[in-house]
Amino acid sequence: PRGFSSSATAGRGGQGVVNVLTSNLAPFTNPSEKDNRAAVVLTRGEGVYVYDTDGKKYLDGLAGLWSNALGNGNERIIEAAHAQLKRLAYQHTFWNRTTDIAEEYTSRLVDFGRHRGVVQTFMSCGGSDANDTNVKLAWYYWNAIGQPSRKTVIARKQAYHGVTITASSMSGMETIHKGYGPLPLPWVRHVSTPHYWKYGLPGESEEEYSARLAKELEAVIVREGPDTIAAFIAEPVMGAGGVIPPPRGYWGSIQSILRKYDILFIADEVVTAFGRLGERLGSEFYDIQPDLYTVAKAMSSSYYPLGAALITEKVADAIKNQANKFGVFGHGYTYGGHPVACAIGLECLNIYEEMQIWDHVKRMTPTFQLTLKQLETHPLVGEVRGEGFMLAIEFVADKASKSQIGTKVPPATILANECMKNGLLVRSTGHVLVIAPSLVYTMENFQEMFTKLKKSLDSFDEIVYKELPE
Ligand code: PMP
Q1: What is the per-residue pLDDT across 92-133, written as a single tens digit (0 to 9) for each?
Q2: Which pick of 127, 161, 190, 384 has the fewest CB atoms within 10 Å?
Q3: Quick one: a GO biological-process term for this protein (predicted)?
Q4: 200 with 295, same domain?
Q5: Each residue of 442-453: pLDDT tens digit?
Q6: Which residue segment(s) compose the domain that 260 sits in?
Q7: What is the CA(283)–ligand 1 centre distance, in A?
């Protein structure tokens, strides 16, 4: 294929795949697999479809990385980017300088979050660096108001907050820490994943389970000393950890513990902001009141790298009032508030507001969630769970013990591969299959997804049962 070195084209060929991918060290790919696992090469996109080098068409069931909310080829976004590139391709927002487009967009972003207390933004290029920013804001806040001992951040196991050193430290996944020596950094603690189906005790109600997790959080705070805790960070619905919506009562109980000990709450809404749960913000869906929000992904519908920290009054005021203590606010990315990113973000926001895209998601959610929930009757499906346009199918060998299926290739990967053969892109985390379509999916798109998934499940059964012991 065009653009690849000759070594890249060696191997299986056909089906838009190559065995070795150029000079790029592929993210979240096992480098030792390069000889037996082909890479898919995509070249073109149209709405919710993408095409590989052989022209094969795929329905994108993951919106890129839960991010390409409006699909590819949106002329309004392309035009906004083009016009901005011609007018002013780049200027920064450092040293009291800014651009008209950065000002217009950030004020619109503040308006977007104002009903949840947002008064200010800090612009980044994606989710990880926005999370780094939020940790720095939390530390700055405590230093500013005279409680410099507050440094520890409490995160959760299985959380995904990105891969900068700060974000990977807060992420609660072994894959992200393994091989990196000092990760996670020592100022992070991880509490339990709120997954009732998996970790609830026999006879324990969802509410009791949530109360138990809140107690666990409180115990960690007390053990560490409340005056050492800066912030708690969490995704409203855990995403990359396997789409885990919180059990009933969870957010209420957690939030009251955070209030009791005056701990800042950072909501990592990189996946959930801008409509994925059927509300503007995921925090709105669960009625939680964070002090800081992290947003990215759908912010630009992934047409450009873009992220932000959304800052509420309490933190914004403390930073502003303490200017004499620390002088300049010593933080900023060259591409934070990039004019083209802002023009794209602004147009996305215009489109979302015009479409009321969150209402579309809310209307389509029952079709998506309830249709696929029926897969729980499959003998190897332990749980189908989700909220809005986020869904996971978890496979088990035995429903009662929830033991894992011991196939050589993990079950969700087998299914994801079959889906790909049938022209549907989804994601496997091993035993969990994740689906998170773009926010403009129509009924026809969902029907196509269901048909392709069903067909793929038929071949999945054949493959898996052949390998499983009787
Ligand atoms: N937080 C969450 C909840 C995410 O899902 C992601 C990305 N999947 C990130 C942070 C990191 O964002 P980025 O890859 O843009 O740095």
Answers
A1: 999 999 999 999 999 999 999 999 999 999 999 999 999 999
A2: 190
A3: biotin biosynthetic process
A4: yes
A5: 999 999 999 999
A6: 76-355
A7: 17
